[in-house]
Amino acid sequence: MRKIRSQAALVAHVDIPVLLLGESGTGKEVLARLIHKLSRRAHRTFLKVNCAAVPADLLESELFGYEPGAFTGATHAKPGKFELCNKGTILLDEIGEMPPALQAKLCTFSKTSNSRGWAAVPSSRWMFASWPPPTSTFLKPWRPSACAKIFTTG
Ligand SMILES: Nc1ncnc2c1ncn2[C@@H]1O[C@H](COP(=O)(O)OP(=O)(O)OP(=O)(O)O)[C@@H](O)[C@H]1O
Ligand SMILES: [Mg+2]
Asked: The domain containing residue 138 runs over which residues?
């Protein structure tokens, strides 16, 4: 665990996405919170989204929000999680349980957000936690240096 903590301390100071992999209960969320606390975003929000708990077809509006009239029944604007996170750290938990197509979409969103800021959404640091590891669809587009990968072992 000492080695993992020192990895976390290093990653905290580099503002890149983090992928946390490890079996249930090995401390993926604990580590995500630690990295946030040690980072320059510590005074901002830490927001966790359990992707497995949100139905796939609702996840996009949950993350990005919507404007009034965007669909039948949308009577008012709803801010998405990224907007609420507001330059803090957003942990997308259980991404491995999402359908591969949605994982790929999320990956594209996150890279867009990190490189030039998602339209009207302040750029937050992205973290992903997953067990089992996400599909290669999700992992493939990342250059090894563009995302820090940490394995938690408890
Ligand atoms: N290294 C650690 N130091 C302190 N507490 C830990 C550590 N690892 C795990 N725990 C404790 O174990 C519990 C589970 O940790 P955590 O929620 O971070 O695991 P997880 O990997 O996210 O698990 P899951 O995949 O089930 O969500 C927490 O209550 C946490 O307090
Ligand atoms: Mg967890």
From this structure: 2-151
